[in-house]
């Protein structure tokens, strides 16, 4: 019985370690964003992620890809966080609104 408890405790600790290691890899890392952090072929996937929660998917994708092609950067998440991509954040429409989603 003691061996079974020791084995279960070991397995629990092992899975906890694996989970913590994997969660650190997906954590927001500001150094991996910013102007020039992407290659042009990565824009499609990053814009798909960025526009995944909007009901205006086509315009979001159009402008996101346009902004990504110019800035080579797409902010993390599906909304906000534009401060990590200054080019993406500062590109405005003629009316002064944000051009990039």
From TrEMBL:
It holds the Pfam family GASA. Keywords: Gibberellin signaling pathway, Signal. GO terms for biological process: gibberellic acid mediated signaling pathway. InterPro entries: GASA (IPR003854). Residues 1-23 form the signal peptide. Belongs to the GASA family. PANTHER family: EXTENSIN, PROLINE-RICH PROTEIN, GIBBERELLIN-REGULATED PROTEIN 6. This is Gibberellin-regulated protein 6.
């Amino acid at each position: 019985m003691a061996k079974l408890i020791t084995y279960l405790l070991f397995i629990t600790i092992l899975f906890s370690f694996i989970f913590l290691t994997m969660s650190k890899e997906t954590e927001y890392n500001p150094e991996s964003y910013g102007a020039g952090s992407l290659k042009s072929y990565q824009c499609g996937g990053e814009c798909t992620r960025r526009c995944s929660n909007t009901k205006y998917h086509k315009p979001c994708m159009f402008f996101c890809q346009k902004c990504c092609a110019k800035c080579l950067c797409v902010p993390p998440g599906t909304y906000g966080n534009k401060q990590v991509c200054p080019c993406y954040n500062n590109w405005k429409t003629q009316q002064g609104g944000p051009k990039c989603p």
